[in-house]
Design brief:
mainly beta; Elongation Factor Tu (Ef-tu), domain 3; 41% strand; transferase; Lumazine-bd
């Protein structure tokens, strides 16, 4: 489990395309300081398993399902990525419960800068709109954010200077894809109430 509090801005150092998968090598001095084979690290909000670890770099395999459901397939050598290790038992939950299981992708539609913050508008797939509410939580590229406005096919978030400086959202421009994970609590409540079929 993750919290959506990005630990560092890492970098893709190698990409190996396989028949039905992809192998990434990524640099991240903070997340690799205690990494071991089999550990989980969230990369742009996608939970990946450490296959190899050497120095400040680690390697992870990404299967076709993940490439199709997320924006990881668009990564190239030099791409910057948000990195986060799993939450340690007993640690503070600074963001919200994040599984690292991407529900879909959105696209940066618009950026409106201000003196002390920036409003970013992101497209929202139709099958995810019912899970996104004003002042609710959403994960964008692995970043725990609060929804400012929830529209019929979009949502907006406000980004403080720290988020802009330390994550990929400071770099992405209109047209760029982002990984989205909605609040898992909303999905469980829907399932328990038996409203899944009626809501679609």
């Amino acid at each position: 489990m993750f919290t959506g509090i990005v630990e560092e801005l890492g970098e893709v150092t190698a990409v190996e395309t396989l028949d039905d998968a992809c192998r990434f090598r990524l640099r991240g001095p903070v997340v690799t300081e205690d990494a071991k084979h089999g550990d989980s690290i969230a990369v742009n909000g996608v939970c990946l398993t450490v296959v190899e670890h050497e120095g400040d770099e680690f390697t992870a395999d990404v299967m076709a399902e993940t490439l199709n459901r997320s924006s990881l397939g668009a990564l190239t050598v030099g791409s910057r990525v948000n990195l986060e290790r799993p939450m340690a038992l007993g640690a503070r939950l600074g963001g919200h419960i994040v599984q690292g299981h991407v529900d879909g992708t959105g696209e940066i539609l618009e950026r409106k800068p201000s003196d002390n913050w920036e409003l970013v508008k992101i497209s929202l797939p139709a099958d995810l709109t019912r899970y996104v509410v004003e002042k609710g939580s959403i994960t964008v590229d692995g970043i725990s954010l609060t929804v400012v406005d929830a529209g019929p096919d979009y949502f907006t978030v406000s980004l403080i200077p720290t988020t802009l400086a330390l994550t990929t959202l400071g770099l992405k421009q209109p047209g760029d894809p982002v990984n989205l994970e909605v609040d898992v609590v909303a999905k469980y409540v829907e399932r328990l109430l038996g409203t899944r079929g009626a809501a679609q």
